[in-house]
Design a protein that fits this description.
single chain; 175 residues; alpha+beta; Immunoglobulin-like; five-stranded antiparallel beta sheet; three-stranded mixed beta sheet; 3 helices
Length: 175
Amino acid sequence: MTRFSIALLALMFAVGSAEAQSYSPEELARRAQERRAVEAVVWGMPAVNTELMFDEMVKAGGKPGQVIYWGKPLDWHNQTLTLNPDTLYFMGFYDLKASGPMVVEIPPAGDDGSLNGNFVTLWQTALEDAGLLGVDKGKGSSSSSRPRALPGQFRRAWRSSHRTPTAATSSSARA
């Protein structure tokens, strides 16, 4: 009975809120263009943010294949889009096409603290989380990434192995 009542209530709201609206062809074209602009921002933001974070790493003296440690909280000088200003970060960017497979190790959590990290593609699509909130539950993680197009067998000696759809990947860990 409860399921039926919820379904009936949902149907009443759906029918009650549907009002006929007529738009001119020009108005429909304008609205479609606005929607496409919003979609372009939403879809492009991960790649733009990755590029901004990479640029900040290079400005600080880092190179692809290295992990950089931001030793103090970030401020407005770091012009990335999604970093927390009250968090210390370790960050690495990897060009798997140039370097081949990459292995990143996250140490186990201890009484004095832990790292929470993630491994992502160029589009910031998650490959895996590590640390207390990740697949290793704070026990430590060895994670390997390789380009999807890498020929031959890849030795799986690590806890997790990712075949990434992009040659550019990154990892970040928060202290």
